[in-house]
Amino acid sequence: MGGLSSVFNLLAYIAAAVFVVGFLNKVILYFKTPSPLVIPTTPAPTTTVGVIMRLIPEVLFFRSLLKGGTTEKILWVGGWLFHVSFLLIVLRHLRFFTYPVPECIMWFQEIGIWAGIVFPIALLILIVRRFTNERLAVISLFQDYFVLVLIISIGLTGLLLKYFMRANLVDVKAFILGLLTFSPVQLPDSPLFLIHFSLVLILLVYFPFSKLMHAWGILVSPTRAQLDNPREVRTVAPWAQ
Ligand code: HEM
């Protein structure tokens, strides 16, 4: 195996390890963080089943965003399209990660291509939204743009791979399966694939340290996930005991 292949295989393992350890670390941190005040956004459920029922439409349809004004509605359109197309793209990509490819992954091949086209459009809406709304532009930080540009670059290099500079997909699959089975093989001979893949590795490393952790945070956010039970349960902050 060539030197570059060894480097990339190693980088892929490092990125995967940083992602898994970093993500789990944040999950534990969120669990350990005290939430001594009962602050669910009312009206809020009083039972755990109720909280789950409240979270489902939030996760699937970003329901609370729909209740906002025009800015939130634009955010809803861009954000929802982005997340759904991302999910479909990932499902389509699973053909590179499985052998034999399960039948259910085949269902997503056609729609996954359409998702690949919607994906950069949704991200463009999110980027333009930050530029054009004055209030939003003021509070936007470098990292807000960084993550949007990083993800749109992954999508665009993917589209280039599909439509203009095709990689040998047999080599791509052998490379990924080699990584997954801890028997690394040669890199596919495609500089564009290397760029697409490297950008994904950067995303993996960045994820646990970024606002992308909202993927887990939404499930444990006090305003959404707490029970509305201050009449039944007395909650005393440690510093008030
Ligand atoms: C954040 C994760 C990723 C995103 C958002 C993404 C996005 C895309 C998009 C939008 C396309 C074009 C449409 C399509 O063919 O599906 C594509 C193609 C492609 N992606 Fe990715 N990708 C990601 C991760 C990966 C990974 C980890 C690999 C490694 C195997 C990969 C390999 C490829 C290849 C080889 C193509 C060309 C497919 C073809 O020619 O049919 N992508 N990607």
Topology:
Blueprint (H helix, E strand, L loop, with lengths): L2 H30 L15 H14 L1 H4 L3 H28 L5 H4 L1 H25 L1 H6 L2 H22 L5 H12 L10 H16 L7 H7 L1 H4 L16
Helix pairs in contact: 1-10, 4-6, 6-8, 8-10
The structure holds protoporphyrin IX containing FE.
Q: Helix share of residues?
A: over 70%
Classification by helices and strands: mainly alpha
Could you tell me the radius of gyration in angstroms? 21 Å
* SSE string: HHHHHHHHHHHH
**Overall 3D shape:** globular
Largest sheet features: none
Query: What ligand species are in this complex?
Result: protoporphyrin IX containing FE
DSSP helical segment count: 12
Mean pLDDT, all residues: 95
Q: Work out the number of β strands.
A: 0
Termini separation: 63 Å
Low-confidence parts lasting 5 or more residues at pLDDT below 50? none
Tell me the fraction of residues in β-strands, as a range: under 5%
Describe the 3D structure.
The protein has 241 residues and is mainly α. It has a domain at 1-46 and 152-228. Helices cover 71% and strands 0% of the residues. The chain has twelve helices and no strands. It has helices at residues 3-32, 48-61, 63-66, 70-97, 103-106, 108-132, 134-139, 142-163, 169-180, 191-206, 214-220, 222-225. Helix 1 (3-32) packs parallel to helix 10. The chain is globular. Protoporphyrin IX containing FE is lined by residues 86, 89, 92-93, 96, 112-113, 116, 119, 154-155, 158-159, 161-162, 166-167, 169, 172, 176, 193, 196-197, 200, 203. Protoporphyrin IX containing FE binds at residues 86, 89, 92-93, 96, 112-113, 116, 119, 154-155, 158-159, 161-162, 166-167, 169, 172, 176, 193, 196-197, 200, 203.
